[in-house]
């Protein structure tokens, strides 16, 4: 099983959108894949047309002593997805305490499954500044950590000054992907080049464009890869899916 963990440098960079759409791109390449939302906002459900009245999720199941797999949902586009679930304030406190008490945090909830072959698991984690001890072992278990960034001065400043980002980068060696790229903006173009130079081989070659198709797709309770397959953002996400396939194929060849 290939475990891909997706996070964002900071809130609002588009990590949820990329995670929700990457599963669609991989499925279109005939890969077996499921996505898990570990963010309490539960926003990934919007991309999978999950009715707002549905409160179920892996966190609800954990509170009742059940496996996270029992919260799995199949979308109307035949995508496998596990939502976080909708919790009350008291339930949120309880789930945080319960996960914190586990020896390896969220890894105890979502253990690695090496017995499952040819399966992709995409996990959406909170942004870098929200990561704490419950996420460490889970991040260590990943086959790849993918961090979403925007080419703007706020993201660049954060990458230069934030201590939690420095520790995250040093320990987990993530790959970075630039989202929200705007080719008509000098700042966006310049900072994309700066990020690519400073992050070097950690920065993926493709750029994910700022695209109005994303909110349009959400308003139609769909993902943008399915809703607007010829949009710039969809093309970028498809490139990302191809890159992942090539990357892991190369690693497999190296291991032979």
TrEMBL record:
Which Pfam families does the UniProt entry name for this protein? CBP_BcsQ
What the entry lists under CDD domains is as follows: SIMIBI (cd01983)
Q: Which NCBIfam families match?
A: cellulose_yhjQ
Q: What is this protein called?
A: Cellulose synthase operon protein YhjQ
Note the InterPro entries from the entry.
Cellulose_synthase_operon_BcsQ, P-loop_NTPase
Q: Which domain of life is it from?
A: Bacteria
């Amino acid at each position: 099983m290939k475990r891909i963990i997706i996070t964002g440098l900071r809130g609002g960079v588009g990590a949820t959108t990329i995670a929700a759409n990457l599963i669609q791109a991989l499925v279109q390449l005939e890969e077996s894949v499921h996505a898990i939302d570990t963010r309490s906002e539960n926003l990934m459900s919007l991309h999978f047309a999950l009715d707002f009245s549905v409160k179920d999720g892996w966190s609800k199941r954990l509170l009742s002593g059940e496996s996270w797999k029992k919260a799995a949902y199949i979308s109307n586009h035949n995508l496998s997805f596990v939502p976080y679930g909708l919790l009350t304030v008291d339930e949120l406190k309880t789930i945080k305490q319960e996960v914190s008490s586990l020896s390896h945090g969220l890894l105890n909830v979502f253990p690695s499954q090496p017995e499952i072959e040819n399966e992709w698991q995409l996990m959406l984690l909170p942004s870098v500044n929200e990561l704490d001890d419950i996420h460490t072992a889970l991040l260590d278990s990943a086959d790849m950590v993918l961090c979403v960034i925007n080419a703007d001065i706020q993201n660049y400043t954060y990458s230069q000054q934030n201590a939690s980002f420095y520790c995250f980068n040093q320990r987990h060696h993530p790959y970075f992907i630039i989202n929200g790229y705007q080719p008509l903006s000098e700042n966006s173009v310049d900072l994309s080049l700066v990020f690519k130079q400073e992050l070097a081989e950690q920065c993926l070659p493709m750029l994910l464009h700022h695209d109005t198709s994303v909110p349009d797709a959400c308003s139609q309770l769909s993902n943008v890869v399915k809703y607007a397959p010829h949009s710039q953002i969809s093309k970028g996400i498809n490139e990302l899916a191809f890159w992942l396939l090539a990357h892991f194929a190369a690693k497999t060849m190296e291991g032979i």
